[in-house]
Amino acid sequence: MNVAVIGSGTMGNGIAHVFAQHGFSVALIDINQPALDRALATITKNLDRQVAKAALSEDDKAATLGRVKTYTSIEAGVVGAGLVVEAATENVDLKLQIFRDLDQYAPAEAILASNTSSISITKIAAVTKRPQQVIGMHFMNPVPVMKLVEVIRGYATSDAVTAKVMDLSRQLGKTPTEVNDYPGFVANRILMPMINEAIISLFEGVAGVEEIDTVMKLGMAHPMGPLQLADFIGLDVCLAILRVLHDGFGNPKYAPCPLLVNMVMAGRLGAKSGEGFYQYTAGSKELVVAERFRK
User: Fold this and answer.
1) Domain 3-hydroxyacyl-CoA dehydrogenase NAD binding, which positions (predicted)?
2) C-beta separation of 282 from 289 below 8 A
3) Could you read off the pLDDT tens digit of each residue along the chain, which spans 295 residues?
4) In terms of CB atoms within 10 Å, which of 57, 72, 144, 228 comes out highest?
């Protein structure tokens, strides 16, 4: 099967990597050629890491890279695709337009999947003429490492399409988990309120950044504390998902903490901006609390 991936950012290049590594021909599509070039460089670096760990041979690396072709046009990139995975920015209007284009250009039998972490699959499917072939494939970051794929059935998604996507996920060495289409699905419906509560605890002065994360890491066996994880995900992404939950359920328990809102407005987005709850310096793995939150 030929696979097309829309978006060459962190998630898109990771999804392209795992499909190509498992023998699929991949069309990686982005309107920005420099972004595609960076994606290929990232895939190469991650494959090199696998080779260094003896998890992959040099021949396997070369074969994987040979299966990835880049395109700056959806129309050209989806020709012959049996599966399209959209991994664009978590913006509902952008995703709806992409799916309108996919419905127009992708083969009639193609499955159209979204890697959205919170936006309704039913809403996305409704802008197409093939809602039974639209599904969610929510991969976790970093895609080559994380085993879970949250497979989200929209209101009209067919049993056959769901079974096919579950099987494809297993072919990637992943563990697919089927869930229904409600705001936040399962992963973010549970995770984001926890992250938000950690931010509220900081906001109200219950404890500091390092202390909150230490309690969750050592007391709850989380490999990463919620504030560090929020930085890793991106505070803007966390805010967007909380707003989807708040709007979708109308429940004040999902209302984002004012501190989170202010940090996003100030451009403190976490690791990708160099500062969130922690400070990030290129080339350093040391975890340093951001100056604003130091005692």
Assistant:
1) 2-181
2) no
3) 999 999 999 999 999 999 999 999 999 999 999 999 999 999 999 999 999 999 999 999 999 999 999 999 999 999 999 999 999 988 999 999 999 999 999 999 999 999 999 999 999 999 999 999 999 999 999 999 999 999 999 999 999 999 999 999 999 999 999 999 999 999 999 999 999 999 999 999 999 999 999 999 999 999 999 999 999 999 999 999 999 999 999 999 999 999 999 999 999 999 999 999 999 998 888 999 999 999 7
4) 228
Of 46, 115, 117, 201, catalytic: 117
Give phi and psi for 3, each to the nearest 5. Answer: -120, 135
Give the chain's length: 295
Q: Which of 120, 138, 169, 196 is catalytic?
A: 138
- Whether 262 sits among the annotated catalytic residues: the reply is no
201 belongs to the catalytic site: no
Is residue 273 among the annotated active site residues?
A: no
Q: Which of 8, 169, 188, 201 is catalytic?
A: 188
- Given the structure tokens 């093939």, which residue do they identify? 130
Which member of 150, 196, 210, 275 is catalytic?
150
Report how far residue 217's alpha carbon sits from residue 65's, in angstroms, rounded to the nearest whole number.
37
Token pair, residue 204, equals 């109200």
Supply 268's token pair: 């403190």
